[in-house]
Design brief:
- The protein has 384 residues and is an alpha/beta fold.
- 40% of the residues lie in helices and 21% in strands.
- It contains 14 helices and 14 strands.
- The longest helix has 22 residues.
C-alpha cells in the first residue's frame, strides 16, 4: 500500500477484467504509485471489487443515465450527488484522500467534490471531456437564454472553480475554456486521453475473413467502421445521409455502438433496405479491436452545429490499430487539424455527403500499403 490515495468519481462502468479503455488504463497506471479508489455510479449492483492491493472499484447502484429520454437522463444526473455523498460519508469516513479525480460528463457532482475537497483537504483535478451546457445549446436541446441553461451554467462554473487543475483534450479545447470562463490560466493544461500503448499483432488474412464472416461483412468491398456513442452529438442526420448515399458506392460501413439514437439508425437501415451498412450493438473492446483490425479505415462523426471544440476519444483506437481516419465534423474542433498535421487521414465538414465520399475515393487511391495508417501509429506513439 502507498502513502497517497486517489479517489476517482465516474459514471462509467469500470471492470479491469473485461474491458481495456482509456479510463481503466489511466486508473491502473495511477495505482502503480498510489492507492486508487474508483467510485462508479452506474446501474451495476452495489459491490466492491479489489483488483490489487492498491486498486479497487466501488459500484454504487443508480438508475441508468444514458439510455433514457432527455428528461429522465437529466433527473438521474441530478440525483447522483445525493447517492455519492451518502456513500462517501458512510463508507470512506476513515479514509485519507489526497486527490479527487473526476471527468465531465457530468458537471453535477459539485456538492460531492466540494465536500471531499474540504473534508479530506484533497486536491481536485478535472478531466474535461465535454463542455456542457453549451454542447446542448448547440444541438438545440434548450435555449441559451432559458433557465435550464442558466442553472447548468452555474453548475459548470462551480466545477471549474472547485478544480485545482483542469486537463483539456486539445489546444482548441483549452483556448475555448479560457476565453469563455474566468479561470486562472496556470491551473489549466492539455491532458489528452490516456491509453497504454501495446504491441499490436496484425491478424492473418484467414483471421480477418473469419471476423468478417462473423458479422456478415463482405471481404471484397472497402470497409469503413465507426465505433462509439450514437447520440445527437454525433450528427445522426448526417450519418443517415452517408449510409443512404453509400448504397451507390462499393463500400461497407459498419457501425458499432449504442446510445439514444441507435434504434433510429437500426430502423433506418431496415426501412431503406440498406445492404452496405452493418449495424452491431456495442461490443466488448477486445471484440471491437478484432473487428477494427479487419477493416480498412476508421470514421469519426460530429454534429456540424457545434461551437465547442470536441475531441473524440475513438481516434485513439484507430491510431493504435494503424487505421487511417476520415472525420466529418463541425468547424470548431481541431481534430481535423490534428489528422491533417499527423498525416493519417482526411477531414470535411459534416454537411455535404459529396465532400465525404470524395475523401473516401481519395483515400482508396492514395493510401498505398496503408501508409496513412502506419503514419498514424507513429503519431500515436510520439504525440498522444
Amino acid at each position: 500500500m502507498f502513502d497517497k490515495t486517489i479517489l476517482v468519481l465516474t459514471i462509467l462502468k469500470i471492470d479491469f477484467n473485461l474491458n481495456k479503455s482509456l479510463y481503466s488504463d489511466l486508473y491502473f497506471e495511477l495505482s502503480k504509485n498510489a492507492n486508487v479508489i474508483v467510485l462508479s455510479l452506474t446501474d451495476n449492483d452495489n459491490q466492491v471489487t479489489k483488483y490489487s492491493e492498491s486498486l479497487e472499484v466501488h459500484n454504487i447502484k443508480v438508475s441508468s443515465s444514458f439510455q433514457k429520454s432527455k428528461i429522465k437522463k437529466a433527473i438521474n444526473l441530478l440525483r447522483l450527488n445525493t447517492k455519492l455523498l451518502r456513500y462517501v460519508k458512510s463508507n470512506l469516513k476513515d479514509t485519507t484522500i489526497d486527490l479527487v479525480l473526476y471527468s465531465t460528463p457530468p458537471i453535477t457532482l459539485n456538492k460531492s467534490i466540494k465536500y471531499i475537497k474540504n473534508h479530506y483537504h484533497a486536491k481536485t483535478y478535472l478531466l474535461l471531456k465535454d463542455i456542457f451546457p453549451q454542447n446542448a445549446v448547440d444541438l438545440g436541446m434548450f435555449s441559451k437564454k432559458g433557465l435550464i441553461h442558466k442553472y447548468f451554467r452555474i453548475k459548470e462554473k462551480n466545477v471549474y472553480n472547485l478544480s485545482d487543475n483542469i486537463g483539456c483534450m486539445s489546444q482548441a479545447n483549452l483556448k475555448y475554456i479560457l476565453n469563455n470562463n474566468n479561470i486562472d490560466k496556470h491551473k489549466i493544461e492539455i491532458n489528452p486521453n490516456s491509453i497504454e500503448i501495446n504491441q499490436i499483432i496484425e491478424i492473418s488474412s484467414h483471421q480477418k475473413q473469419e471476423v468478417l464472416d462473423t458479422y456478415g461483412i463482405a471481404k471484397d468491398k472497402f470497409k469503413m467502421i465507426y465505433g462509439g456513442n450514437l447520440g445527437e452529438p454525433q450528427g445522426i442526420e448526417f450519418i443517415l445521409k452517408v449510409i443512404l448515399e453509400n448504397e451507390n458506392h462499393n463500400n461497407i460501413i459498419t457501425i458499432v455502438g449504442s446510445g439514444t439514437q441507435s434504434n433510429r439508425i437500426k430502423k433506418f437501415i431496415v426501412d431503406n433496405n440498406l445492404v452496405n451498412t452493418v449495424f452491431i450493438d456495442k461490443l466488448a473492446k477486445d471484440k471491437f479491436d478484432l473487428l477494427l483490425s479487419a477493416c480498412d479505415i476508421g470514421l469519426i462523426f460530429l454534429d456540424a452545429r457545434f461551437t465547442i471544440p470536441n475531441f473524440p476519444s475513438r481516434l485513439l483506437s484507430y491510431l493504435e490499430y494503424s487505421k487511417p481516419v476520415i472525420a466529418a465534423t463541425d468547424l470548431n474542433t481541431d481534430v481535423g487539424e490534428t489528422i491533417k498535421n499527423g498525416g493519417f487521414g482526411y477531414w470535411c465538414e459534416s454537411k455535404n455527403t459529396d465532400d465525404f465520399f470524395k475523401l473516401v475515393e481519395k483515400m482508396k487511391i492514395e493510401n498505398i500499403n496503408n501508409q496513412f495508417g502506419k503514419t498514424g501509429r507513429i503519431f500515436f506513439r510520439k504525440i498522444l
